[in-house]
Amino acid sequence: MTKKPEAFDKFPVGLEERDVLPSSRKNVASRDHRPMLENLQRRFFLRQTLSLGAVAMLSGCNLQDGDTIDRILWAMSRWNDRAQAWLFGQNKLAPTYGPTDVTRPFPFNAFYPEDSVPDIDLSEYRLEVSGLVDNKRFWSLEDLRVLPQVSQITRHICIEGWSAIGEWSGVPLRSFLERIGADLTARYVGFKCADRYYTSLDMPTALHPQTILALDFDKGPLPAKYGYPLKLRVPTKLGFKNPKHIAAIFITNEYPGGYWEDQGYNWFSGL
């Protein structure tokens, strides 16, 4: 398992419970997208089945040896990450939609209940930038808002089997990375969040034209439950790769892992 960065000791504790998807939200996915969700579920099931099959076929492998099985499954997951990365294309865009397609109300989802959303004091908020960058500094929300922004209406697809369409506006991550002098040949961009969540992206996905640091949702400032004051919006990835309440961004060549990825979720998780 990947060790959590020591910086997480600085964030509030007590947010360990995962929010269970209420039955009222299980039908959020629109009919036109259910085939894609079903395909994602089939792919996940097939990947797990093939992995277990491969383990069973290994000569001399003791299936009661949990550590051995874990190592093999992790190795296969890493192979799957490499395959997805190889297939990823910067010119392939996620579908976009019109204002009438926006899902209202947009569902809340996190690894904690809605009443545990972090209360962030805007006057004290500063985004930390570190790692392989020329300009290591802290950014206020006002600093971010004066940067050129773009808007998108795209679909958020959750690994739990639901999807919803929303409108996000913010700073293209690529332009932000260029502005801070990030090493764009580095392998990873990592994110630490005020709710103790953490995840990371491969650099090609970070540079994708639809990957943005979202400041607004539905033509207004991000509500707290949707990631205030800063959320990563990545429509080419599953929902858990879209962290909320971002407190720090770092560039690295060392694998940073992620909250769910370190518990077995596929790291690349592309759509």
TrEMBL record:
Residue ranges occupied by any Oxidoreductase molybdopterin-binding domain in the UniProt entry: 116-260
Entries under Pfam families matching the protein: Oxidored_molyb
Alphabetized Gene3D superfamilies for the sequence: Oxidoreductase, molybdopterin-binding domain (3.90.420.10)
Taxonomic superkingdom: Bacteria
PANTHER family linked: BLL0505 PROTEIN (PTHR43032:SF2), PROTEIN-METHIONINE-SULFOXIDE REDUCTASE (PTHR43032)
Record-given protein name: DMSO/TMAO reductase YedYZ molybdopterin-dependent catalytic subunit
